[in-house]
Write a structure and sequence with these properties.
This is CHM4C protein. The protein has five helices and no strands. The protein is mostly helical. It has a domain of 88 residues: ESAT-6-like (Helix Hairpins). The radius of gyration is 38 Å and the shape is elongated.
């Protein structure tokens, strides 16, 4: 089967077929590989453009036909370079979106895990018992405050007069 038909028919690894698609790590790795390949092609085209420009300068007015051909090739390479730039931007955007989606998925999983842990912690707690306990604590704090107020009042007899 040709590479093109594999691409359009979804030819991929057996591991990714069994799970219904590639994992985020596999997809990220492939996107990075594609980015590297396109970057190398960019560098190649940039050197070709420089060569064609140098050839056009070399031929200058002596051989106008060769100079024009070099400039046409340069223009063709620049068009390819522009297309590659657009493709790279699209791939970078897709890679970043995939990384963010993967991060969001992991955050969501961890939040669910934390929710289960909180549920387990609160499993043995009864809201009525907690209310009763809080009332008892409040009552005891009031008693402690009254005792503290009584102790801290002056022991002077007769300081307080009823007018």
């Amino acid at each position: 089967m040709s590479k093109i038909s594999k691409f359009f028919k979804g030819g991929g690894s057996a591991a990714s077929k069994g799970r219904g698609g590639p994992s985020p790590q596999e997809a990220l790795a492939r996107l990075r590989e594609t980015e590297e390949m396109l970057s190398k092609k960019q560098e190649y085209l940039e050197t070709r453009i420089e060569r064609e420009l140098a050839a056009a300068r070399q031929h200058g007015t002596k051989n106008k036909r060769a100079a024009l051909q070099a400039l046409k090739r340069k223009k063709r390479y620049e068009k390819q370079l522009s297309q590659i730039d657009g493709t790279l931007s699209t791939i970078e955007f897709q890679r970043e979106a995939l990384e963010n989606s993967h991060t969001n998925t992991e955050v969501l999983k961890n939040m669910g895990y934390a929710a289960q842990a909180m549920k387990k912690v609160h499993e043995n707690m009864d809201l009525n018992k907690i209310d009763d306990l809080m009332q008892d604590i409040t009552e005891q704090q009031d008693v402690a405050q009254e005792i503290s107020d009584a102790i801290s009042n002056r022991a002077g007899f007769g300081d307080e007069f009823d007018e």
